[in-house]
Design a protein that fits this description.
The chain is of the alpha+beta class and 90 residues long. The chain is built from three helices and five strands, in the order H-H-E-E-E-E-E-H. The strands form two sheets. The protein has a three-stranded antiparallel beta sheet. A two-stranded antiparallel sheet has the order 3-4. It is elongated.
């Protein structure tokens, strides 16, 4: 499912226009992004938790040249599914 298909499904399920559903989805993703940028967790009970984790700098290998490269430290987004979501996709 891509973004436009999700917007259509949300609009149909909620009985709202596609434009309103698109705004709701964009607001959702923007607010999740803002919270993660601040280092906060976003927990949606039953669905899951969005959080961030820090990856330390490490050494890797370029698969084409086999040369060693340095991979910089960074913060990455993480999602842990909730029990209801996990049970629904079994």
């Amino acid at each position: 499912m891509n973004k436009s298909e999700l917007v259509s499904a949300m609009a149909e399920d909620a009985g709202i226009s596609k434009a309103a559903a698109k705004l709701a989805l964009e607001s959702f993703t923007e607010n999740i992004t803002k919270a993660l940028k601040k280092g906060d967790k976003v927990s949606l009970v039953g669905f899951g938790t969005f959080s961030t984790t820090k990856r330390s700098a490490r050494e890797g290998i370029n698969p084409q040249t086999k040369a060693k490269i340095k991979i910089a430290a960074k913060t990455v987004a993480k999602f842990k599914p909730g029990s209801e979501l996990a049970d629904a996709v079994k």
